[in-house]
Design goal:
Blueprint: E1 8-12, H1 18-29, E2 35-41, H2 47-54, E3 59-61, H3 70-83, E4 88-91, H4 100-103, E5 110-114, H5 126-133, E6 137-144, E7 154-161, H6 168-191, E8 195-198, E9 201-204, E10 207-208, E11 213-214
This protein binds 5-O-phosphono-beta-D-ribofuranosylamine.
The site of 5-O-phosphono-beta-D-ribofuranosylamine has 15 residues, from helix 1, strand 5 and helix 6.
Length: 222
């Protein structure tokens, strides 16, 4: 049972929504003391919106082409987001850059999950680029969102090995398995008020984090 005072989350998603589903399931099971107050996006047909509606959560998408520019779209989208009065905004596979004006009121209250060990491999196609670069480890990062693409302060990371014979799909699947527990672990800390952003520094229990937390990593079997 989710208590009335549980932190309210707004989730932004553009696609399949597996991270959103992990959050919905964790809330339903009582593993995450939060409630998903609304799901918002830029693609009306995104499966993430369907997942939200199936769970009885309000879901709305605006189409970028209906707006003159990115700032106009962001302002309208964040207007919708604000209408559900979230405590935190979670970008979970939201595939558009967010502008400074929209983000400003939400500094320290908006996070994103990115499928790489930031600051490596910002942007798209991270799994193929990790394989091409020959790295031994890849993974996912959860970071506070700033207007810099995948550039905000990193809260936590999950690592996976890159295995011989991996292609972008096998590696993406291995990373995705860690994304869900990573996202949930960060949300638990954030919703409990233990993770905060002080200017550009991530703090845990009021102390600066010297390095991103390492959570939910997958090691090679010994
Ligand atoms: C995930 O790999 C996430 O890290 C990235 O986009 C993908 C979204 O997956 N930002 P899903 O929509 O949550 O299934």
């Amino acid at each position: 049972m989710v208590a009335d005072h549980s932190p309210r989350l707004a989730v932004l998603a553009s696609g399949r929504g597996s991270n959103l589903q992990a959050i919905i399931d964790a809330v339903a099971d009582g593993r995450l003391d939060a409630r998903v107050a609304g799901v918002f996006g830029d693609r009306p047909k995104a499966f993430a919106l369907e997942r939200a509606r199936d769970a009885g959560i309000e879901a709305r998408a605006l189409r970028p082409r209906d707006f003159a520019d990115r700032d106009g779209f962001d302002a309208a989208l964040f207007n919708e987001v604000a209408s559900v009065q979230p405590d935190f905004i979670v970008c979970a596979g939201y595939m558009r850059l967010l502008g400074a004006a929209a983000l400003e009121p939400w500094a320290g209250r908006i996070i994103n999950i990115h499928p790489s060990l930031l600051p490596d491999f910002k942007g798209l196609d991270t799994h193929a680029r990790a394989i091409a670069a020959g790295v031994a480890e890849h993974g996912a990062s959860v970071h506070f969102v700033t207007p810099d693409l995948d550039g905000g302060p990193v809260i936590a990371q999950a690592r996976v090995p890159v295995l011989p014979g991996d292609d972008a799909d096998t590696l993406a699947a291995r990373v995705l398995e860690t994304e869900h527990p990573l996202m949930l672990a960060v949300l638990q800390l954030l919703c409990a008020g233990r993770i905060t952003l002080c200017d550009t520094v991530v703090e845990l229990d009021g102390q600066p984090l010297p390095a991103p937390l390492q959570l939910a990593s997958k090691r090679l079997p010994a």
